[in-house]
Amino acid sequence: MVVVVDLDGCKGINDTYDHQIGDAFLIHLTRLLEQTVEPLGFAARVGGDEFFLLLQNQTPDHGISLDTLIHHADQAMYHIKYNGKNGYRIHDTLYSVQRPSEGGTR
Fold it and tell me: What beta strand segments (E) does 1-106 contain?
């Protein structure tokens, strides 16, 4: 399972407190994510305020490649991002559909 975490409002931290504080916040968050998922997989910061969590053995293997999982996770994230933020969306690889999002208000 791949989880994409995209933070909203990180630019505000940099603008208000400076980039050094913003970087320290992202490093702290990275460590928290790593500690949280460590028994099940791993976490990685892949860009500015975006993180991927790879959780192994959480769902049956349907022969889906990691690239495909990341692609579906990105699609789900962008759906939330452009439809109000503050939500989540799940792509079900078994049925190749995206379940409706929860939250996401604009």
Answer: 2-6, 41-47, 50-55, 87-92, 97-103
* Contacting residues for 73 by C-beta, under 8 A, at least 6 apart: 2, 3, 4, 52, 91
AA letter at 82? Y
Distance between CA atoms of residues 68 and 63, nearest Å: 10
The pLDDT tens digits for 61-104 are: 556 788 888 888 888 888 888 888 788 887 777 665 555 555 55
Phi, psi of 100 (to 5 degrees): -55, 150
Predicted confidence (pLDDT) per residue in 9-66, tens digit: 888 888 999 999 999 999 999 999 999 998 889 999 888 889 999 888 655 555 678 8
Residue 33 has phi, psi (to 5 degrees) of -65, -45
* Residue pair 73/51 in contact by the 8 Å Cβ criterion: no
Instruction: Name the pairing type of β-strands 87-92 and 2-6.
Output: unpaired
